[in-house]
Amino acid sequence: MPSKRNKSLSDVSAATSERMARVAQRDNACERALRSALHKRGFRYRLHRPVEGTRRTIDIAFVSKRLAVFVDGCFWHGCPVHGSAPKNNAAWWRRKIDANVARDHDTAIRLEASGWRVVRVWEHESVEVAADRISRLLRPVRGKNATFS
């Protein structure tokens, strides 16, 4: 008897469905590398914090700074540089990836509406460059002309 997962992917081969099920949805290598780089810089965070009103989670959440970091895979989230379109079942995959992109956009809107800043890091980005970008948001540079309140 086919599982529910296979039924929802009825127009995808069993082998493809099995391969998709094995893809790490959390704690993947890119996410772990970024977390390690941030931790080495002295930042502490929460993992997989729920997004209110949804079943979605923030990959890396800096709760006190209200900064949400998502680490997105190029294929699954439709990277404009490295995203690819499979030839088999092209229409199904286009709908799947478009739905992921729409969900990402909706998640960002929900978080921003509740006072969060959202950072998206593509898997192809350098970990150090991404960590630098996040660090700047967490520790704003204060120059000579900065006003302190």
What do the pLDDT scores average to? 85
CATH 2nd-level architecture: 3-Layer(aba) Sandwich
Count every beta strand, where a strand is a DSSP E run of 2 or more residues: 4
Question: What is the class in the CATH system?
Answer: Alpha Beta
CATH topology label: Endonuclease, Chain A
Helix segment tally:
5
The N- to C-terminal Cα distance equals 65 Å
**What's the domain count?**
1
Question: Mind summarizing the main beta sheet?
Answer: 4 strands, mixed
So, the CATH homologous superfamily? VSR Endonuclease
SS-derived structural category:
alpha+beta
InterPro entries: DNA_mismatch_endonuc_vsr, Restrct_endonuc-II-like
Organism: Luteimonas salinisoli
GO molecular function: endonuclease activity; hydrolase activity
Family: Belongs to the Vsr family.
